[in-house]
Amino acid sequence: MRLPRIPLTVVTILLSTTVAYGQNARIKIDIDRTIGRIDENLYGNFVEHLGRCVYGGVYDAGSDQADARGFRTDVMEAIKGLNVSIVRYPGGNFVSNYHWLDGVGPERTPRMELAWARLETNQFGTNEFMGSAERSAPSLISR
After folding, report:
1. Neighbour tally for 61: CB within 10 Å
2. Distance CA 126, CA 141 (A)
3. Do residues 56 and 71 make contact, with C-beta atoms less than 8 angstroms apart?
4. How far apart are the first and last CA of the chain?
5. Pair 122, 111: CB distance under 8 Å
6. Is residue 98 situated within a structural domain?
7. Bridging pattern class, strands 111-113 and 118-120
8. What is the total count of domains within the chain?
9. Which helix (H) or strand (E) element contains residue 129?
10. Partners of 141 in the β-ladder
11. 26 domain residue, yes or no
12. What CA–CA distance (Å, rounded) separates 53 from 67?
């Protein structure tokens, strides 16, 4: 008599579930033991051209609250209050299609933003990010 063949994955799942139910799991937190220092840059933020984060957010030249370079002074003050350790630009999905040269200099070439299927004017770009970081004072990462 020939026994049916049971796939190895099924056997593994059956064995692991019976072993897991037979264990008494325990988690112990030792607050006096230090393994290492957590780098403060782990808790950084990023700026992405999504919604009103950039246009109408940190940058809005037409706003009554904007300074001479187009930055919203109220937003920049709020960012300072967050004590952000590091800011990455561009961030999020926007980084997949952005080239830093598109946001440098007086002549900006609008490009189709593939992630959000809209035209990106590049009015806010690398130059503006560097200027905003000078105002809010976190460390910078620009990729």
Report:
1. 14
2. 11
3. no
4. 66
5. yes
6. yes
7. antiparallel
8. 1
9. helix 126-136
10. 88
11. no
12. 17
Summarised one tens digit per residue, pLDDT across range 22-79 is 577 888 888 888 888 888 878 788 888 878 888 998 899 999 999 988 989 998 888 8
Six-digit token string for 79: 């960012």
Whether pTM exceeds 0.85? no
Residue 46, domain member (yes or no): yes
| Three-state DSSP string of 31-86 | CCCCCCCCCHHHHCEECCCCCCCCECCCECCCCCCECCCCEEHHHHHHHHHHCCCE
CB 119 within 8 A of CB 112: yes
List Cα–Cα distances, 75 to 8, 24, 52, 53, 134, in angstroms: 58, 51, 12, 10, 14
Q: Is residue 10 domain-resident? A: no
Q: Which residue has the tokens 């593994």?
A: 12
List pLDDT tens digits, range 63-83. Answer: 999 998 898 999 888 888 887
Element (H, E) at 111: strand 111-113
Domain that holds residue 92: 31-142
Tokens of 128: 């503006």
- What the block records as the tokens of 91 is 């961030």
